[in-house]
Write a structure and sequence with these properties.
Elements lengths: L1 H10 L17 H24 L11 H19 L7 H24 L2
Helix pairs in contact: 1-2, 1-3, 2-3, 2-4
């Protein structure tokens, strides 16, 4: 239930980051929305990973069910919700989310190192 609410929150369209508000050319609107949604999902997943990571001293097992449910939603439920034709296959989706996670993690590490 919590994971579904978090996912729906990530799905809301924010007018501040709408392609037209950012004066992006019409040709990139669809790709921009896809990338924005991917990175929203990856950010949420990264936050949950941080809370359940067994190597962390401040690990919080209370977040484990949310982490597993959120993963199920983004990797298994989305193709069923939006239709298989509008989403990449699961392997491609995993690769995309993994790449976004690596990018976000690298950016986070670099900002920590620059302090």
């Amino acid at each position: 239930m919590i994971a579904a609410s978090v996912h729906q929150m990530a799905d809301k369209e924010d007018p501040q980051v709408a392609p037209k508000s950012l004066n992006l050319p019409e040709a990139v609107h669809a790709r921009f929305r896809e990338k924005l949604f991917l990175y929203r999902e990856a950010n949420i997943l990264l936050a949950l990973v941080d809370r359940v990571d067994p190597s962390r001293n401040d690990r919080d097992p209370m977040f484990e069910p949310v982490f597993w449910e959120y993963g199920r939603i983004i990797f298994w439920e989305l193709p069923r919700i939006f239709g298989e034709s509008s989403n990449p296959d699961r392997a491609t989706r995993r690769q995309s989310v993994a790449a976004a996670l690596q990018d976000l993690n690298a950016r986070r590490q670099s900002s920590v190192n620059n302090r």
